[in-house]
Write a structure and sequence with these properties.
Blueprint: E1 3-4, E2 7-8, E3 17-19, E4 22-24, E5 30-34, H1 40-59, E6 66-69, H2 74-80, H3 86-95, E7 97-100, H4 114-121, E8 126-132, E9 148-154, E10 164-165, H5 170-182, E11 193-194, H6 200-216, E12 221-226, H7 235-250, E13 254-256, H8 257-268, H9 274-281, H10 290-311, E14 320-326, H11 327-336, E15 343-346, H12 348-361, E16 369-373, E17 378-382, H13 399-412, H14 415-430, E18 433-434, H15 436-439, E19 446-447, H16 450-459
Parallel strand pairs: 5-6, 5-7, 7-17, 9-15, 12-14, 12-15, 13-14, 18-19
Antiparallel strand pairs: 1-2, 3-4, 8-9, 8-16, 10-11, 16-17
Length: 461
């Protein structure tokens, strides 16, 4: 298409294309942007200046982003009478990569959330949220510098699939009747009902992307987060499918936590038998039935036969570690032992809670970038709200969108740009030249406007 929303596509740019999940990025990629509502206007203007300056400094004019505005939220409603236009969705699909500011969720029916709609329509199945500390940012925890984690949250399934029925509705009564009368459950008849679908396909593509990211950026581990001790056929299955995917597709590059115990036991005692090894990796071995014991011994036998040649004699220590943790436990772990976790792969609801909890340790959502990524498109975005009372006052911290741009440039393979932005942002904060949200918490800081903060970052490049 030559135009979207009635606006001509820039003639001086080229489209990004996709082969498998690999991007082919031209020297002058066309990247659609959604300015955002409320404070989004100030934030986007500042962020765009930082992006353009970093690209220029990294590549000296050899590369350039060709920006192309598309519409969602209040601006779309004012211009077209729609909160999200079909052309804006088509433009993101056409040009593969887009970036957006915060959007208003319309009240009173229609689209429940513009962000959720974009994820569902474009099948952006991975919500990716890096959380790291920038020196000098006020934090409520003692050692925020130990937090450096990337969350991969499944975006399309779980309770966010939106399959739910109101209390006392006809459909709720039908489902409750089926559960109670046919399957013997005891659900209260006046209950609201929600369905929690989780599939092997949905889980595996999320875990695949998390593992690929960990390998690309040389991360030490991927942790599967789940509540499988209670929800065995959904969250427990998420864990099992994740391990299955890791072994099937990344066998030579990964090792599971239990496999490390098996291999380490053998290395410390080369004459150890399989049953003795099984007893050492399973504390409750003696209380198990004969069938259960045989299963653990079989696990040891299978591991030794399949990976000793490639992973034994300490080689497993060079592999990407795949482990899992119960959801409630990981909330404690991310507080007291955050440096033991680098990539977290989670179902939808767990990831929603956990990403915000992690962000709180490093300064809150104002410093938290995000992205929604699928195999055919990706949208990078601010993770905070629109804060309309501060709109057009040139005072809001633009770091969430700036750091989302860092993620975008990493996704494009333009790491020189990402590094320049991160280094300059870090230096600016260390200089205590910050916007009001950080200024009010930092002794001796200089308060800058949104636009001035962008100028300071550019200066520090």
């Amino acid at each position: 298409m030559a135009r979207f929303n009635g606006i001509e596509v820039p003639a001086d740019g080229q489209k990004i294309t996709v082969e498998g999940i690999k991007l082919n990025v031209p020297e002058r990629p066309i990247i659609p942007f959604i300015e955002g509502d409320g404070t989004g206007r100030d934030i986007w203007q500042a962020s765009r200046r930082v992006f353009d300056a970093a690209v220029e400094k990294a590549y000296g004019g050899a590369r350039k982003v060709v920006w192309y505005e598309i519409f969602a939220g209040e601006k779309a409603f004012e211009k077209f009478g729609e909160w999200l236009t079909d052309d804006s969705v088509k433009a993101i699909a056409e040009f593969v990569v887009a970036i957006k500011g915060p959007l208003t969720t319309p009240v009173g029916g229609g689209i429940r959330s513009l962000n959720v709609t974009l994820r569902q329509v474009l099948d952006l199945y991975a919500c990716v949220r890096p959380v790291r500390y920038f020196d000098g940012v006020p934090s409520p925890v003692l050692h925020p510098e130990r937090v450096d984690v990337v969350l991969f949250r499944e975006n399309t399934e779980d309770v966010y699939a939106g399959v739910e029925f109101k209390s006392e509705s006809e459909r709720a009564r039908e489902i409750i009747s089926l559960l109670n009368d046919k399957y013997g459950y005891k659900v209260r008849t006046d209950s609201g009902i929600g369905i929690k679908p989780m599939s092997p396909a949905g889980t595996k593509r999320l875990v695949r992307r998390a593992i690929a990211y960990a390998l690309e950026f040389n991360k030490p581990s991927v942790t599967l987060v789940h509540k499988g001790n209670i929800m065995k056929f959904t969250e427990g299955a998420f864990r099992d499918w994740g391990y299955e995917l890791a072994k099937d597709e990344f066998r030579n590059q990964i090792v599971t936590e239990r496999e490390t115990w098996i291999l380490d036991n053998r290395e410390k005692n080369p004459s150890i038998g399989e049953e003795e090894n099984a007893r050492m990796i399973e504390p409750g071995f003696e209380q198990m039935s004969e069938t259960q014991r045989a299963g653990i011994v079989g696990e040891v036998t299978q591991a030794m036969a399949s990976i000793w040649a490639t992973h034994g004699n300490g080689e497993w220590k060079k592999k990407l570690l795949i482990k899992d943790r119960i959801a409630d436990s990981i909330f404690q772990q991310i507080l007291i032992r955050p440096d033991e976790y680098s990539i977290l792969a989670t179902p939808n609801l767990n990831g929603d809670y956990l990403s915000d909890a992690a962000a709180a340790q490093v300064g809150g959502l104002g410093m938290a970038p995000g992205a929604n990524i699928g195999d055919r498109a990706a949208v990078f975005e601010a993770t905070h709200g629109t804060a309309p009372k501060y709109a057009d006052k040139d005072m809001i911290n633009p770091s969430s969108v700036i750091l989302s741009g860092v993620m975008m440039f990493e996704h494009l393979g333009w790491r020189d740009v990402s590094e320049k932005i991160v280094d300059a942002l870090t230096k600016t904060i260390r200089q205590k030249r910050v916007t009001y949200d950080l200024h009010r918490q930092m002794e001796g800081a200089t308060r800058l406007k949104t636009s001035e903060f962008a100028s300071a970052i550019i200066e520090n490049m």
